[in-house]
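U., I forgot to send this yesterday:
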Amino acid sequence: QVQLVESGGGLVQPGGSLRLSCVASGFAFSSTTMSWYRQAPGKERELVARITSGGGDKTYADSVKGRFTISRVNAQNTVYLQMNSLKPEDTATYYCHKRWSNYWGQGIQVTVSS
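Result:
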């Protein structure tokens, strides 16, 4: 069965960095576009970043451009989200998502606060 397992979240001060990881299993990861979404309390879930199967095409939300980088290692069935220059408004639960499906990770909390 499809599984998406996130890790790497936590509490960080404004201006700090975190790297999220999502390890996938149960499907052809190297052929699949993958995404990171986030949802803050009281807000809708929003797309943060997306990467195509080969990693050649990446899409970012305007709010994270220049600060976040999505990447993947197909040999390890893993997609990453490197988050730099974090702001309090980045505080949310972050989810890994398999494109064109209803498969989501369990979500991981990122809190940016001093």
